[in-house]
Amino acid sequence: MPGAAADGAIVNPAGAAEQAWRRLQPERWPLPKEAFPQEAALVGGAVRDALLDRLGDAPDLDVVVEGDAVALCRQLGRRHGGSTVVLDAERSMARLVIGGWSIDLARRDGDSLEADLHRRDYTINAMALPLAERRLLVDPLNGYRHLQAKQLVAVAESNLLDDPLRLLRGLRLAGQLDFALEPSTARWISQHHAAIAPVAGERVLAELDKLAAAPGGEPLLARCLELKLLVPWRRSPWTPEEAQRLARCSAQAAHERGWSQAERSSFLPLARLANVVDAAALEQLRSSRKLQKQVSTLRRWQQQLGGTQPAMQAAALPETERLQLHRDLEASLPALVLDWPSDAARAWMERWRDPSDHLFHPSPPIDGLSLQRALQIPPSPALGALLLHLMQEQAFGRLDNRDAALEQARRWLESAEDAGERAPRRD
Question: What is the pTM of this model?
Fold first, then answer.
């Protein structure tokens, strides 16, 4: 039977604490539990994931202590090795990185452990395992019951507003865990969507990345837009076309199109994200330039090939445009074809997986330096045009070896000279 802690918290329902500790395997931690102060407690995601049996090999550990957590972190680093990163000096929060593990230490917020848990975001994150007691789960807000019901419940409306990123984090957690949002929680997120605007773009993007990678991420990303959580970073309304494409960016669709697990991990998040934010929004969110370019290029080709038969439209493109499509999307083509009809998507994926396919992986049949030496021509803008011409000839099967490429290059130069066009001058 559950007991009651001295401060009124419900403790250890159905032996949950012992089960969580068996899964946490503290004997594998890079430093022993005894290294922490007597009152230290494990809190947050590691407790939640241990109870759900979804821990990774080296889960991030969050520990609260009564005193100066930064000083303790440095002390542990000196005694056991590892490096200390100060996360928030004012709130006394630091991270110990040691042996491939990350251990966050924070000064307890409030007069008791229960008071600290009452300041957290969602009840499933508001449970604690005191390090000195393997039989105690401190759960003042019924987080364990909500875990069993697969329901995400906010601790309090005011807690969400203390850090408005928690509004978006709620949808992310629901997606990752396949939990339902409790009605009051959903209402608070909807009512306070504008509060997220001042949150640092990097933090918002980190949550979006996790949402896009979640197994059921596409409906929850759609929910983000419906709740207007991304309005500060979108210049235009979400279009029906984007909504339809996003709905088709499912793990089931990837499975039906024969994607490997590695392909799903790499391209499913990109396909979803591109239907939620554009390059301008990503710039505001301080994403990498690589991601901005990927999304911009993907969205441009989605729009160009829009319609009911995108594969047929792509196949009907003039050669120069078809080549440009594959040059633009060589590294991210799966994200384009995910919402295509299955047969067409599978055919394109089969060719894309073949690194020797010169259309899906275009490159010149000879490099520029070799071309200069063989034909005795200097570098010039026209040399780039010649290389592009040779790339196109090879991509569409009209060149198959180096000698043929050199002969084609000679004819191209002669034709350019005869036409009076600018061509590299031969010495």
Answer: 0.82
